[in-house]
């Protein structure tokens, strides 16, 4: 890993943050992903590993600290990859405060009016890109 930082956002009284790690290559990212998750991520260009909450029956038990870890690498710092991983993070954020049975139809939660997810995706993506620019990285638009 060559860089790390945190990005946070508050919506509806909930402030959550994710840690962002930047790796020097896709190989370094995949090796770190295997270490962090114990799973093979040999096709990954980025990864979001959530650990900021866990389900216990019908409730969510939050753990203190960040919601999770977003892993990126310098050869694929694009708006698309960053937004993709932050969408995973935002979905974890959403379900950490809106627990449901895994078999609940997605339409019960993900309709066009789900502002919380959109705000977290937008804020975390923008803040990550801003921080990368501040550190001297360029972020491609495609």
Automatic annotation (TrEMBL):
This is Uncharacterized protein. It comes from Glutamicibacter uratoxydans.
